[in-house]
C-alpha cells in the first residue's frame, strides 16, 4: 500500500512538473531560512559545552538595585567574592575569577588590539580551555595565547618563551598556547594573562573592593552532591556582611545569584557587562523569519493543490468505490506532500551551501557549527512535519469528495469552492513580500545616505593613515615633501563614526554646571584640511606655534556651535575667550568656534564638541591629496610609510571609503535582500501557478468568446483582471504597513531619509511589474489559442 | 439480494422539491442480469448510484442481503464496497497515473490482500482478459475498448457479488460494445455475478434477462421479463 502511495506520488509530481517545480523551489527557499535558524539554535545550545562539570559549575550574577528602584542584572561580581566562597564554604570545590579588558599589545613593532582576560590559576581547571602546549599562566607577567593570536604575532614559529609588550603591564612572557575551541564559548579573548600580572594600586584595590561589582566574573564549582540551594542560601549572607559600610551614589544595594554554566546559553535575560551569549529573543526572531518564509511556500502548495483538485477528484471517487476509506486517501495525499517536502530539503541544503560563504551567515548564524547526525535528523524531521502540515488542508478537502458527485459528470464540475481562501493566500503572500521590500529599501537607503551624505567636513581627496607606532611629526614632515600632498593634519578620531571620547566638562573648577561633550585631539592644520569654517575667534594660537609636535596639551581649544548652545552662551563671539575645566587640573581657553558639522554617525543629532591640541593622543594623520593624479601620490605616500615603518603593512584608506564601509553594511543588506527576493519569488511562482491553472480551465470560455468576436486584448484583460485586483489589494494593505515598518527602523536615526513616493512607488511598481509579467505571460498565450482547438472535442 | 421499498430521491428546489425518483419498489435476486433503460434525465444513473450506495435515498427503504442500507455505518458500507460491489463507468474512470496492472490491483490493496495473493489474482485477470502484454501501459496508451476491459477487470478483481455498470459501452463503437457486452454475459453466466446496467441501447439491454424502464422518475409498472417473451 505504502509503495503504491510512493509510486503514484512520484508519477503525479513528474506529470505536473511545473507545479512540482514551483512547490519544491518555494518550500526549499523557506526551508533554507529555517535550516539556518536551526543551525544557529544548535550552536546556541552547544555554546561552551566543553566546560567540565557544567552542571555544578556556576557563574555568579549581581542584581543591582539603583536608587530609583530599578533592578539591573550584571554578569559580573566584585572581586573579593571568589575568595570568601572558597575559604568559608565547605560545599565549594573551587572558584575562579576572570577580569576582561582590552589591551594594545606590541611584538616586534607589530601592534594588536585584542580582548584579554586576567585569570587566576584555578581558571585552567574550572573552565574547559585546554592547553595545546606549554604551561598555564600563573606567575606574574605570563600569558597563554589562543592559536589565532599566536599565529597573528609569531606566525608559524613557537611562541613559548617569547615576549609581548603591554604599556601598563610591561613585558609579558608567553608560557603556553590553547587548543582550538570545539565550539564557541561565552568568554572570548585573544589571550589570558595571570591575575598576578595586574599589580597597579588601582588593580590591587579592586581585589578587595566590594563596591566594584563590574570588576570581573566569578565562577564557582560545587563539590559533587552539593546542592545549589546551599550556594543560594550563602550568597545573601555574604552580601549582608560585606556591603554594610558601603557609601552608594546611584545604587541602593545588590544581591548575588548563581547561574549554571549549563543554562548559560541561550540566555533568558540581557545582562550588563555581558559576555554576549545568544539570547532566546534572537533565536526566536530568526526562527520566526524562517517560518514566515516557509509559510509563504506552504500557501503555494495549498493553493496549487486545491486549484488542481478537479483532476484529483475523479481519482478520489474511483478509490472510494474501490473501497478506500477517508484516512487512507488522506495518508496518500499527505505522503505526496511529504515526498515533495523531503525533495525540498535536498534543494534547501544545496541553497544553504550556496549562501554559506556570505559574511552575514558566517558571523551571525552558522559560524563554527558542525552538521552532525542529530542535526540532520532534526532537518529531516522538520521537513516531514512541514510536509504533513502543508498536506493536511488539501488532503482533508480532497479526501472529502463524494464519489457519486465526482464520477457522474465528466465536465463542468465545480467541486471546490474555496476561491476566497485561495485568493486571500495570494494576497497574504504579496503583502508580506511587499512589506519586507519596503522595509528593506528603507534600511538600504538610510545606509546609503549615511555612507555618502555630506557630513559638513571634507572627505573627498583625504587619505587617513593610522599612525600605530610611527611618530606623527616625522611622518607628517616626510609626507609634506611629496609634491602631490597639499596638507597633512593629525587627529585622535575619525569623524563620521562613534565620535570618540565623551566626558563631562565644567565651567568652574569645582561644582557649577557640567556639560557632556565629545573631545577630539587635532592639530593646527586640521581646520583647513577638513574645510571646517570658523564662525568666531581664530584657530588656536598654540596650535600654530607649537611645531615641535611633542609638546604638552595646548591651553587653547576650539568648540562647535552646539557647545556654545550647551554652555548657554548667546552667540559664538561671546564664547571666545571663555575658559573650561576639562578635568580637575586642566583649564583651557576657547580660541574659536567652528560651524556645526556631523562628527558622529547620523544616529545622533549634532552634539557639543571640543577640538583640543593633545599630540600624545593623535592616532591618524589626514593627508589631503591634490587633484590630478591621486594614485601616483598614493604610491609615493606608501613609499614613505614603508621607509618609516618597514614591518607594518600600509593601512591608509580614503576618507570616502571609510565612511562608505562604516555605514553601508552591504553584507547585511545583501542577506536581507536575499530573504526579500525569496519571499517575492515564492509569491510570483504561486501566482504563476494559479494563473496557469485558471487559464487552462477557462480555455473553452476563451474559445467561445473569440468565436463571438472578442479581441486578444479583451481576452487578456478578462483573464488578468481578477489577479491584478489581488495585487492591488495586496499593495493597499502593504503600503501603510511597510511604511510603519520602515519608520520603526528610521526613527533610530536623528537624520534619516524619508519613505517618500519613490520608495513606496518603486516597490508597488515592481510588484505590479513582476506580477503583471507573470500574469500576462500566461494569459497572452491563452488568448492567442485557436478556438477551433479548444472547442473541437470535449 | 437487493430490494427497494418505496424509494424516492428529491433535491430541494426553491420552495419545493424536484423529484428524480418517485416511489420505486423493486427486487433483484442473485444471478440476475438487469438493464435499466429510459430517456435522458429519467433518473437511471441516480437509481444505479442508490443501488451502489454512492447516494442515499431521500425516502424509502433499501435492503442489501437483508441488511437495511440506510442504517449502516460509513465503515460497514465501505466494507460492502470492498467485498460485494464492483463499478464500471461509461468514461472508464481509470487512474491515469497508474499502469493497467496497478489499476486492477487498486481494490485488492484496499481489501488488505497480501502481496503474493494480489499478484496471482491480477495475473489471473490479465490472462483471462487477454491483456498480459499491456500490463505496464498507462490508460492513455490504450483504446477505449481496452480501457473498458481494464475497468471491468478492476470491477471483478475483488470478486464482487454484484457489478453496477453505468452505460458501460456509451463511449465505444459497436464492435467494441459487443465485445464488452459478451464479457458481461459471460461473467453473469459463468461466474454467477449479478449485473445491473444502465443503457440507452435496446441491443445491449437484450443481453440481460430483465429490463426496468424509467420515465420521469417513475418505474414503469410492468417490468418486462425477456425470458417470458
Give a quick summary of the entry:
The complex is a heterodimer of chains A (794) and B (229). Chain A is built from 26 helices and 22 strands.
Q: What's the arrangement of secondary structure elements?
A:
The complex is a heterodimer of chains A (794) and B (229).
Chain A: H1 2-15, H2 17-46, E1 57-66, E2 71-74, H3 80-88, E3 92-107, E4 110-119, H4 123-126, E5 131-134, E6 142-145, H5 147-154, E7 163-166, E8 170-178, E9 191-194, H6 201-206, E10 217-222, H7 228-242, E11 251-260, H8 280-307, H9 309-321, H10 326-355, H11 359-366, H12 373-398, H13 403-408, H14 419-452, E12 462-466, H15 472-480, E13 485-491, E14 501-506, E15 514-521, H16 526-529, E16 534-537, H17 541-545, E17 556-560, H18 561-566, H19 572-575, E18 579-581, E19 587-594, E20 609-612, E21 620-625, H20 630-644, E22 653-654, H21 655-664, H22 666-697, H23 699-707, H24 712-746, H25 757-784, H26 787-792
Helix pairs in contact in A: 1-10, 2-8, 2-10, 2-11, 2-12, 2-22, 8-12, 8-14, 8-22, 10-12, 14-21, 14-22, 14-24, 14-25, 22-25, 24-25
Chain B: E1 2-13, E2 16-28, E3 33-37, H1 44-51, E4 59-64, E5 67-68, H2 74-83, E6 85-89, H3 100-111, H4 115-128, H5 144-157, E7 162-166, H6 174-191, E8 194-198, H7 202-205, E9 210-215, E10 218-219, E11 224-225
Care to describe what's here?
The complex is a heterodimer of chains A (794) and B (229). With 794 residues, chain A is α+β, with helices and mostly antiparallel strands. Chain A has 3 domains: 1-39 and 284-417, no CATH class; 57-263, no CATH class; 469-647, no CATH class. Chain A is built from 26 helices and 22 strands. In chain A, the strands form 3 sheets. In chain A, strands 14, 15, 16, 17, 18, 19 and 20 form a 7-stranded mixed β-sheet that branches. A 6-stranded mixed β-barrel of chain A has the order 3-4-9-6-8-7. In chain A, a hairpin with a 3-residue loop joins strand 7 (163-166) and strand 8 (170-178). The longest helix of chain A is centred in the C-terminal third of the chain and has 35 residues, at 712-746. Chain A is globular, with a radius of gyration of 34 Å. Chain A starts with a helix and ends with a helix. With 229 residues, chain B is an alpha/beta fold. Chain B has a domain at 32-41 and 74-221: P-loop containing nucleotide triphosphate hydrolases (Rossmann fold). In chain B, helix 3 packs parallel to helix 5 and helix 5 packs parallel to helix 6. The two termini of chain B are 24 Å apart. The chains are: A alpha+beta (794), B alpha/beta (229). The interface between A and B is medium-sized, with 25 and 31 residues.
Amino acid at each position: 500500500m505504502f509503495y503504491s502511495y510512493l509510486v503514484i506520488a512520484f508519477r503525479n509530481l513528474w506529470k505536473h512538473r511545473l507545479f512540482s517545480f514551483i512547490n519544491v523551489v518555494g518550500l526549499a527557499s523557506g526551508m533554507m531560512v529555517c535550516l539556518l535558524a536551526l543551525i544557529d539554535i544548535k550552536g546556541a545550545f552547544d555554546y561552551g559545552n566543553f566546560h567540565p562539570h557544567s552542571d555544578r559549575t556556576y557563574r555568579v550574577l549581581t542584581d543591582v538595585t539603583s536608587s530609583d528602584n530599578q533592578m539591573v542584572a550584571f554578569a559580573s561580581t566584585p572581586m573579593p567574592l571568589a575568595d570568601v566562597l572558597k575559604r568559608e564554604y565547605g560545599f565549594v570545590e573551587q572558584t575562579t575569577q576572570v577580569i576582561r579588558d582590552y589591551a594594545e599589545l606590541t611584538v616586534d613593532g607589530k601592534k594588536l588590539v585584542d580582548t584579554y582576560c586576567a585569570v587566576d590559576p584555578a581558571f585552567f581547571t574550572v573552565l574547559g580551555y585546554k592547553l595545546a602546549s606549554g604551561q598555564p599562566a600563573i606567575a606574574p607577567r605570563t600569558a597563554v595565547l589562543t592559536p589565532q593570536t599566536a599565529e597573528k604575532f609569531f606566525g608559524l614559529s613557537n611562541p613559548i618563551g617569547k615576549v609581548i609588550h603591554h604599556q601598563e603591564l610591561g613585558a609579558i612572557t608567553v608560557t603556553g598556547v590553547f587548543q582550538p575551541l570545539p565550539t564557541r564559548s561565552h568568554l572570548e579573548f585573544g589571550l589570558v594573562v595571570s591575575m598576578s600580572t595586574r599589580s597597579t594600586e588601582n588593580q590591587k584595590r579592586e581585589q578587595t573592593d566590594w563596591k566594584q561589582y563590574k570588576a570581573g566574573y566569578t565562577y564557582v564549582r560545587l563539590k559533587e552532591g552539593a546542592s545549589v540551594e546551599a550556594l543560594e542560601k550563602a550568597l545573601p549572607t555574604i552580601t549582608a556582611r560585606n556591603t554594610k559600610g558601603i557609601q552608594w551614589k546611584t545604587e541602593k544595594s545588590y544581591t548575588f545569584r548563581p547561574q549554571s554554566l549549563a543554562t548559560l546559553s541561550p540566555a533568558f535575560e540581557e545582562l550588563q557587562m555581558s559576555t554576549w551569549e545568544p539570547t532566546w529573543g534572537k533565536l526566536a526572531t530568526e526562527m520566526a523569519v524562517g517560518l514566515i518564509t516557509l509559510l509563504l511556500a506552504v500557501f503555494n502548495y495549498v493553493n496549487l493543490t486545491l486549484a488542481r483538485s478537479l483532476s484529483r477528484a475523479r481519482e478520489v471517487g474511483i478509490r472510494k468505490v474501490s473501497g478506500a476509506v477517508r484516512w487512507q486517501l488522506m495518508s496518500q495525499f499527505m505522503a505526496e506532500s511529504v515526498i515533495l517536502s523531503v525533495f525540498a530539503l535536498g534543494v534547501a541544503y544545496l541553497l544553504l551551501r550556496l549562501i554559506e560563504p556570505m559574511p552575514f551567515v558566517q558571523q551571525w548564524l552558522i559560524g563554527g557549527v558542525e552538521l552532525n547526525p542529530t542535526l540532520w535528523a532534526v532537518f529531516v524531521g522538520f521537513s516531514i512535519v512541514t510536509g504533513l502540515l502543508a498536506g493536511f488542508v488539501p488532503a482533508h478537502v480532497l479526501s472529502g469528495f463524494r464519489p457519486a458527485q465526482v464520477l457522474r459528470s465528466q465536465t463542468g464540475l465545480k467541486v471546490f469552492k474555496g476561491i476566497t481562501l485561495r485568493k486571500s493566500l495570494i494576497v497574504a503572500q504579496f503583502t508580506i513580500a511587499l512589506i519586507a521590500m519596503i522595509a528593506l529599501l528603507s534600511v538600504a537607503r538610510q545606509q546609503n545616505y549615511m555612507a555618502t551624505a555630506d557630513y559638513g567636513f571634507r572627505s573627498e581627496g583625504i587619505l587617513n593613515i593610522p599612525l600605530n607606532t610611527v611618530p606623527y611629526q616625522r611622518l607628517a614632515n616626510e609626507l609634506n615633501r611629496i609634491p602631490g600632498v597639499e596638507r597633512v593634519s593629525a587627529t585622535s578620531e575619525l569623524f563620521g563614526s562613534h565620535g570618540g571620547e565623551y566626558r563631562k566638562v565644567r565651567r568652574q573648577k569645582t561644582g557649577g554646571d557640567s556639560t557632556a561633550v565629545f573631545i577630539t585631539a587635532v592639530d593646527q592644520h586640521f581646520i583647513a584640511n577638513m574645510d571646517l569654517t570658523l564662525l568666531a575667534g581664530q584657530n588656536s594660537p598654540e596650535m600654530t606655534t607649537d611645531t615641535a609636535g611633542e609638546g604638552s596639551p595646548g591651553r587653547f581649544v576650539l568648540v562647535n556651535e552646539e557647545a556654545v548652545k550647551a554652555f548657554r552662551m548667546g552667540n559664538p563671539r561671546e564664547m571666545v575667550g571663555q575658559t573650561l575645566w576639562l578635568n580637575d587640573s586642566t583649564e583651557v581657553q576657547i580660541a574659536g568656534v567652528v560651524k556645526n558639522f556631523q562628527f558622529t554617525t547620523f544616529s545622533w543629532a549634532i552634539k557639543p564638541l571640543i577640538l583640543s591640541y593633545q599630540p600624545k593622543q593623535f592616532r591618524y594623520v589626514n593627508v589631503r591629496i591634490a587633484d590630478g593624479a591621486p594614485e601616483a601620490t598614493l604610491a609615493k605616500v606608501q613609499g614613505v610609510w614603508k621607509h618609516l615603518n618597514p614591518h607594518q603593512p600600509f593601512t591608509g584608506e580614503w576618507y570616502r571609503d571609510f565612511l562608505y564601509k562604516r555605514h553601508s553594511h552591504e553584507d547585511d543588506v545583501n542577506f536581507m535582500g536575499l530573504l526579500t527576493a525569496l519571499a517575492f519569488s515564492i509569491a510570483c511562482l504561486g501566482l504563476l501557478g494559479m494563473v496557469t491553472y485558471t487559464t487552462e480551465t477557462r480555455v473553452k470560455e476563451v474559445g467561445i468568446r473569440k468565436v463571438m468576436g472578442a479581441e486578444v486584448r479583451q481576452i487578456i484583460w478578462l483573464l488578468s483582471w481578477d489577479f491584478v485586483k489581488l495585487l492591488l489589494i495586496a499593495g493597499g494593505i502593504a503600503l501603510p504597513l511597510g511604511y510603519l515598518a520602515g519608520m520603526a527602523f528610521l526613527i533610530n536615526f536623528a537624520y534619516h531619509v524619508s519613505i517618500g513616493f519613490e520608495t513606496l512607488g518603486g516597490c508597488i511598481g515592481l510588484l505590479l511589474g513582476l506580477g503583471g509579467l507573470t500574469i500576462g505571460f500566461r494569459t497572452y498565450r491563452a488568448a492567442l489559442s485557436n478556438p477551433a482547438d479548444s472547442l473541437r472535442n470535449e | 439480494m437487493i430490494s427497494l421499498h418505496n424509494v424516492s430521491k428529491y433535491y430541494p428546489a426553491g420552495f419545493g422539491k424536484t423529484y428524480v425518483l418517485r416511489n420505486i419498489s423493486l427486487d433483484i435476486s442473485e444471478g440476475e442480469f438487469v438493464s435499466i433503460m429510459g430517456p435522458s434525465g429519467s433518473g437511471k444513473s441516480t437509481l444505479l448510484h442508490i443501488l451502489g450506495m454512492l447516494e442515499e435515498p431521500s425516502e424509502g427503504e433499501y435492503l442489501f442481503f437483508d441488511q437495511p442500507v440506510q442504517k449502516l455505518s460509513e465503515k460497514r458500507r465501505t466494507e460492502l464496497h470492498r467485498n460485494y460491489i464492483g463499478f464500471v463507468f461509461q468514461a472508464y474512470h481509470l487512474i491515469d497515473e497508474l499502469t493497467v496492472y496497478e489499476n486492477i490491483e487498486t481494490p485488492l490493496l484496499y481489501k488488505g490482500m497480501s502481496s503474493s495473493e494480489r499478484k496471482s489474482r491480477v495475473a489471473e485477470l490479465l490472462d483471462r482478459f487477454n491483456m498480459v502484454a499491456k500490463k505496464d501501459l498507462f490508460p492513455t496508451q490504450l483504446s477505449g475498448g481496452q480501457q473498458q476491459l481494464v475497468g471491468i477487470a478492476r470491477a471483478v478483481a475483488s470478486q464482487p457479488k454484484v457489478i453496477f455498470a453505468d452505460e458501460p459501452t456509451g463511449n465505444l463503437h459497436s464492435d467494441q460494445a459487443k465485445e464488452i457486452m459478451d464479457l458481461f454475459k459471460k461473467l453473469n453466466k459463468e461466474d454467477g455475478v449479478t449485473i445491473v446496467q444502465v443503457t440507452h441501447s435496446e441491443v445491449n439491454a437484450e443481453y440481460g434477462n430483465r429490463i426496468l424502464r424509467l420515465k420521469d422518475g417513475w418505474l414503469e409498472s410492468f417490468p418486462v421479463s425477456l425470458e417470458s417473451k
